[in-house]
Amino acid sequence: MSDQAVSEMQEFHWIIDMLQTVDVGIVVLDKQFNVKMWNGFMESHSGRLPSDVRDKCLFDLFPDIDQDWFMQKAKPVFGLKTRAFMIWEQRPYLFKFSNYRPITGSEEFMYQNIILSPLVSATGQVENISMMVYDMTDIASGKKQLEALQVAQSEAFERQHMQRPGQ
Q1: 3-state SS class at 29
Q2: What does the alpha-carbon distance between residue 149 and residue 157 come to, in Å, rounded to a whole number?
Q3: What is the C-alpha to C-alpha distance for residues 81 and 84, in angstroms, rounded to an integer?
Q4: For labeling, which of 113, 128, 139, 150 is most exposed (least CB within 10 Å)?
Q5: Of the candidates 87, 77, 45, the residue with the CA atom closest to the CA atom of residue 62
Q6: Which fold has domain 3-137?
Q7: What is the Cα–Cα distance from 57 to 55, expressed in whole angstroms?
Q8: Residue 140 and residue 158: Cα distance in Å, rounded?
């Protein structure tokens, strides 16, 4: 094996290792929404091994996912080769994973942002899409706490002004 081939093989293994250990969920789905790749983040948070989910339909594995809604989100990714976004403010999660910081976290489940991206083959066709799942729980929790504080301050301000004599 040439030095270049060995170097390329090492790079390939680094990339695979990075995909498995990155703190972002990575899932690859085909046009029938069968799972083709399931990284370590997804395994850790779902409790499902890649070998248990590979070649199985996402909607069979996670019946809580609104199939019609998700397919509508994925349609332009396959057809138009554009990305699609799902943010926690519109829908808190796609996968109802438990919050993995039960002591320090105040949320019951993991809030998520999701990006669907086309995976264009060598023929220029999109046969698969990638799904990246970002844990947004800390940000969501902070925003909810800030909003609760703002409401409490507003109510306190209103009570204070209603109690003033002569107004």
Answers
A1: strand
A2: 12
A3: 10
A4: 150
A5: 45
A6: Beta-Lactamase (3.30.450)
A7: 7
A8: 27
**CA–CA gap between residue 27 and residue 38 (Å, rounded):** 5
Q: Which residue has the tokens 């301000």?
A: 157
Burial class (CB in 10 A: 0-12, 13-18, 19+), 141: middle
Location of structure tokens 């109802």: 96
Q: Let me know: does 29 contact 61? Beta carbons within 8 Å.
A: no
7-37: pLDDT as tens digits: 777 887 677 777 777 889 999 999 999 999 9
Residue extents of the structural domains in the chain: 3-137
Position 164 confidence tier, pLDDT thresholds 50, 70, 90 = low
Q: Which helix (H) or strand (E) segment is 118 a member of?
A: strand 112-120
